[in-house]
Structure formats: C-alpha cells, structure tokens
Specification:
With 575 residues, the protein is of the alpha/beta class. 35% of the residues lie in helices and 12% in strands. It is globular and about 80 Å long. Bound molecules: FE2/S2 (inorganic) cluster (FES) and magnesium ion (MG). The site of FE2/S2 (inorganic) cluster has 10 residues, from loops. This is Dihydroxy-acid dehydratase.
C-alpha cells in the first residue's frame, strides 16, 4: 500500500487532526476497523435500490456482490442511496426527475470521500441519471445494470414487458380479449427480479452502457437472477479498484468514439428512441459534441439484426443465450462499423472484447445479410413542423406509412386526446395524421411517453393496426408504430406543432427525412399571434425550475446549467 498515490478520500480520512478524527470516528460506528482508512481506494456504490422502483428492487443484493469484489481488490466499498426513478409508478413521468436524480448523484459523489464509483442502475431513467451525474464529476466509474427479468410467460407463450400491454390493451379495445384474461396476464409478464425484458429503454440503456465501454462485457443481457449477474457485479468491484489505482477517469472511456459505437449499436439492436435524448445529455456532461445529426448519419446504414420485441420476436433472456451484445458488436466490427480502439473499463479495447464473441442463435442475433430491418437506427426528420428535428424509429414503423400525406386530427393535450379519441363523431380515418401537443419537456412537464397514442377503437375494430402519429412527446421503448416523436421546439415552447389545426395537411417523408405542415406562412404567422403557452399544472417547486431551465429534445433535455463537467475537486470541509 505504501507506493499508492494519494487519493481524493485521504482529504477526509488521512492525518491526525481534528477533522480526520471526525471523518473516521463516525464511520467507525459501522464496525469498520482502523486499517480500512489507510489510504486504500474508497469506492462509492451509488444505489438506485427502491421498492417503488420494482426493476431495481434487487440492487441491494447486487451491491453485496460488488462489495466482495472491492474488498478482495483491497478497496473500501461504501454504499449510498440516490433518488430512484421507477418508470412504472412515478408520475407524471420519471423523465421529469432524471435531471433531479443526476444532481443528487453529482453532489453525493463530489461531497463525499470517494475515489471511484459503481453505478447500480436498471429501470430506464436510472441509467442516464447516474451516468450524467457521475460524468460531471469525472471520477473513475463503472455502471452495473441490474439485468432484465426472465422472459414473460402467459399460457405457455412468451410475453414481453410493455410490448404486450399495448398489444393486449388493443385486443381488449377491439373485442379480441376479455378483461379477465387481460388482468391474468399481469403476473406472467413480471415473474422475476429485473428490468423490462423487451428491447425497451432499460435494455437499450444497459446495452449503451456496454457499448460505451463504461460497463463490463455482458452487462446488457445477463438476466437479473442469473448467477452470472452476481459474478459481473463482483468483477466490477475488483475492476473499479484498479481503475482508481490507474486513475482511469470516465472521460477516458466516454469519448466521441465510444458514443459513435453506442449509436451504431442502438441501430443494430433496434434500441429505444429514448436513447437519443439520454446519450446526447450524457455526452454533453462529459464534454463530447454529439447532436441529432450524428444519430441519423451514424445509424442510417446500420441494419437492425437483433430480433427482439418491440420490433421483433424474442426477449432479453433469448438474447443472452444467443451471445448477447458482444455478438452484435462483433458483427458490426467485422464490417468496419465499430471504433475498435475505444477503451473500456475492462482494460481492453472494445475491439479486443468482441473479436471472438460467438453467436449461438442466428434467429435471435441475425447475420447482416438477413436483418430484421435494413434501415435500423433512428431517422431524424426536419421541416417546418420540426425545425430543430424530430425522430422516428423506422424498425418499429409500418413501411407503407413512412411516405404519407394526410389530414391532421389535433389533440391539444393528453386530456383532450382521452376525451376525444373514442368519440363516435370524430371524423378520423386510417389516412388521418394524429397530432398530440403539449406533451414535451416543458409542456407535460417532463416529456411523457404518450407519443404512441392508441388508435381509436372504431378503427381498431376495423382491423387498422397503425396510423401516423406526431407529437412533442416521447414513446416507451417497448412501444411501436409509425410514430414521430420529440418534435422540437415543442408546442409549449411555441414550436410549429402548437399551431396545427384539424384538417391541415401534413407530409411525412422518412426517406427524405422531412416533416412538413402544408400551411402557408401568412396563415401560420396569424395563428402564432393568437397563441400563449399553456399554464403549468403545478406552480412553484421543482416543476417551475424544470420548466424554466430544461433544454429542448434536440439538446437532450438536460438543464442548461447542468451541461458540462465540473469534476470532483475536494470541497471545503464543514467543521
Ligand atoms: Fe422499469 Fe421497464 S419499467 S425497466
Ligand atoms: Mg419507459
């Protein structure tokens, strides 16, 4: 230990003065012997465990595996809680609190005697929140995802988190499924610890962790209850101690090259549109330039080869058994679509990690010449309806609708949608374009996952399965359809979408990357003059701060004052 460099934590724990006494003495009430304060790496385990975040409810036990690894490598692990964001319960939307949680993470890291951190993440927003907060501190860090649930199973059939909720609910609305059957699918969907086992946002972000190199190999797919998830956590505990000893900071891992890899991997896995917002936000925290055009340019020629719901057939457990994300990255690497020299927290380059990765099932992870969709990735649309961009996931859309011109049916907000969608008098047909306003970052607030608004029952009963939908909202990563999302600027910020009226002609051209409202400028200007922003649902409090400082979707919805790196210098002490 004597040749160890002086670590950050020694500003708290080293020395013989009053302050060092205080810092050590109170810690010793946990039964920590004196030798643990000898200058060894102190590893913070940043835990999003919560019983209100069911997808992360097992992270206390994952933390125990991390601790074993940290102790074994000669470090001192100290677990601490941060705000946990559960997608299924938290209202109005977990996304409203992603930035708040990131502030919690950043300040908890900087204010405490830690030299490196393990980020325990799982449910959708917990991954970006912790990466964003930690990136602003730029200490050595490894993200460990909690892993997906076992495949859902209902009456002998696999069912996917979220994806089947949308599907079953449409079946109920169309009269194909009884309410009793619908309700009995609940337990079958969620039958083990872990996060959604579709390629929704949680699995996408766990894949991004692995693709960015900020997590260990197999982080994406190892099931939550597979013993190998514990092994991964144990090894992460060992590795973080080494990263601290070698002073490998997040900024050495989260490089421009790493983000390019992540974007391409997102295309290959058919990942969630939410990753667009999160990766831009994380990149801007660490100081890497990344924008919407990078998403379109880098992802454009990447075929989706992972056949998982919601775009395809299988689930995360199948993906793991098929070889997981490494098999996907190997495929990309072989055709030059991977920056193979990107460093990872594993101590090898990403190219080295995936070079020999086997693919055990070419139905689940398909070869490039037999993709699920030739054009994976995220298409970025622009036009007068989205001057700062909008996104669509072509792999989840209906090919015939990706070139479409139709009349707008406008919903001013989500309440208006609910009130109007099943009104028998609503003049809507399969060629109509559904427009939903005021569900963006400021408008909802928090940019709700309501962009994939269900179709009207009367059309579902006729067998209509998809229609063009456009909004400033997000969509659950487990959802599908010809759904244009994230229009920027949003309605509540005075974006063009605010001025769309029933009957306006709208043109969507995904191949040409265009989204136009075919209304002339003079008319639009007149509509703009009569507009004022909607009042926020709650005055004051955190929501006011959020509405005032949140950036638009094209900039990742971070707060303007949180962008960037502030590092983890040692603050003044308080005694
Ligand atoms: Fe938590 Fe899907 S609801 S991962
Ligand atoms: Mg979600």
């Amino acid at each position: 230990m004597s040749d160890r460099r002086t670590l950050r934590s020694s500003a708290w724990f080293a020395g013989e003065g009053k302050n060092a006494f205080m810092h050590r003495s109170w810690m010793k009430n946990q039964g920590l012997p004196a030798h643990l304060f000898d200058g060894r790496p102190v590893i913070g385990i940043c835990n999003t465990w919560s019983e209100l975040t069911p997808c992360n409810a097992h992270l206390r036990s994952i933390a125990e595996h991390v601790k074993r690894g940290v102790y074994e490598a000669g470090g001192l692990p100290l677990e601490f809680p941060v705000m946990s964001l559960g997608e299924s319960n938290l209202r109005p939307t977990a996304m409203l609190f992603r930035n708040l949680a990131s502030m919690d993470v950043e300040e908890s890291i900087r204010g405490n005697p830690v030299d490196g951190v393990i980020l325990l993440v799982g449910c959708d927003k917990t991954t970006p929140a912790l990466l964003m907060g930690a990136a602003s501190c730029n200490l050595p860090a490894i993200a460990v995802s909690g892993g997906p649930m076992l495949n859902g199973n209902f009456r002998g059939q696999p069912i996917g988190s979220g994806t089947h909720v949308w599907k079953f609910y449409e079946d109920v609305k169309a009269g194909r499924l009884s309410v009793d059957d619908f309700l009995s699918a609940e337990q079958g969907q969620s039958r083990s610890a872990g996060s959604c086992m579709t390629m929704g946002t949680a699995s996408t972000m766990a894949s991004m962790v692995e693709a960015l190199g900020i997590g260990l190999p197999d982080n994406a797919a190892t099931p939550a209850v597979d013993a190998r998830r514990g092994v991964l956590a144990h090894l992460a505990g060992r590795r973080i101690v080494e990263l601290v000893e070698q002073d490998v900071r997040m900024s050495q891992i989260l490089t421009r090259q790493a983000f390019e890899n992540a974007i391409r991997v997102n295309g290959a896995i058919g990942g969630s549109t939410n990753a667009v917002l999160h990766l831009i936000a994380i990149a801007r925290r660490i100081g890497v330039e990344l924008d919407l055009d990078d998403w379109d340019r880098l992802g454009r020629n990447v075929p989706t080869i992972v056949d998982l719901m919601p775009s395809g057939r299988y689930l995360m457990e199948d993906f793991y058994y098929a070889g997981g994300l490494r098999a996907v990255m190997r495929t990309l690497n072989e055709v030059g679509l991977l920056n193979r020299d990107a460093e990872t927290v594993a101590g090898k380059t990403i190219g080295e990690l995936v070079a020999d990765a086997p693919n055990y099932n070419e139905e689940v992870i398909r070869p490039l010449d037999r993709p699920l969709t030739t054009e994976g990735g995220i298409a970025v649309l622009r036009g007068n309806l989205a001057p700062k961009g909008a996104v669509i996931k072509p792999s989840a859309a209906t090919p015939a609708l990706m070139q479409h011109r139709g009349r707008a049916i406008v919903f001013e907000n989500i309440e208006h949608y609910y009130a109007r969608i099943d009104d028998p008098a609503l003049e809507i047909d399969p060629t109509s374009v559904m427009i939903l306003k005021n569900c963006g970052p400021k408008g909802y607030p928090g940019m709700a996952e309501v962009g994939n608004m269900p179709l009207p029952s009367k059309l579902l009963k006729q067998g209509v399965s998809d229609m063009v939908r456009i909004s400033d909202a997000r969509m659950s990563g487990t959802a599908y359809g010809t759904v244009v999302l994230h229009t920027a600027p949003e309605a509540a910020a005075g974006g063009t979408i605010a001025f769309v009226q029933d009957g306006d002609l709208i043109e969507l051209d995904v191949a040409g990357r265009r989204l136009e409202l075919l209304v002339d400028e003079t008319e639009l200007a007149a509509r703009r003059r009569g507009w004022s922003p909607p009042p926020p649902p709650i005055g004051g409090g955190y929501q006011s701060l959020f509405i005032e400082r949140v950036l638009q979707a094209d900039e990742g919805c971070d707060f303007d004052f949180l962008v960037g790196r502030r590092d983890a210098g040692i603050p003044r002490h308080s005694h």
